[in-house]
Amino acid sequence: MMGDPAIDREAFKEFEREGFSRVAQGYDGAIAHVTSQANEGILDAVETGSGSRLLDVACGTGWLSAAALKRQAIVTGLDYAENMVVIGRSRFPQIEFHLGDAENLPFESNKFDAVVCNLGILHFPEPEKAIAESLRVLKSGGRYAFTCWTPPARNPFMALILGAVQTYGIIDVDLPPGPPLFRFGDPDECQKILSASGFTSVSVTELPITWTFSKSQDVMPTIIASSARLGPMLAMQTQEQSHDIENAIIQGAKKYATDNVIQIPASVVLAVGRKP
């Protein structure tokens, strides 16, 4: 899958950069709460502890970085969306945040004890390059971990959102094409890419995630306001399509009502490897 000719890498990268900068505040208030549920599992997988030098790639607004700091790790965060980095720096001044590219890391080789990437790999036009760069900056014996959403068949939240769009709207809207969204939701694909990149002791597991909303009517507006790709896809539907999609999401979300809130299950794949 190296170098897919159908993907304009620079157009995709710029779309993602601008998109995440635009929704940084909304992302921090919504999606970051969800994705942070994987933080402890990721940090356990790379054996993060006191004095560990850890690089958080695609760090967003710094939630995973902050969780590593609580373990007394020496933390560096990197993201290519400027507003994400601005929020991270303002909230966690003890952490060194960089604006930079996961596919061309601005660090010397053999620098870090661990490199982590929580739900960032699906946003890279050439994930193989990002993984190779993570390997390069790791010390020998260091560990690397990334997560990715599982596909709709194992992910009720994604099934709800994408199923509503497939039924009542258009999935293939006019956005820069990128790598397959759920490529690394396949454990075999994770195993293959990490092994091919030079990692050993590769393991792949699944972590549960829960999306929580005050009411079912909040689901679609929240995604539009906090997602760089799903949000624009939803926003680009016609008025009629948008109405039907939102109604389907509202009705589907009601099935997950509990204790006066909506809790929709999801999951991520956690892939881990060690540098020889």
TrEMBL record:
Q: Which domain of life is it from?
A: Bacteria
Q: Which GO terms describe its molecular function?
A: methyltransferase activity
Q: Which GO terms describe its biological process?
A: methylation
What InterPro entries does UniProt report for this protein, alphabetically? Methyltransf_11 (IPR013216), SAM-dependent_MTases_sf (IPR029063)
The Methyltransferase type domain sits at 55-146
Q: Where are the transmembrane segments?
A: none
Give any Pfam family that matches: Methyltransf_11
This one is known as Methyltransferase domain-containing protein
Source organism per entry reads Nostoc paludosum FACHB-159
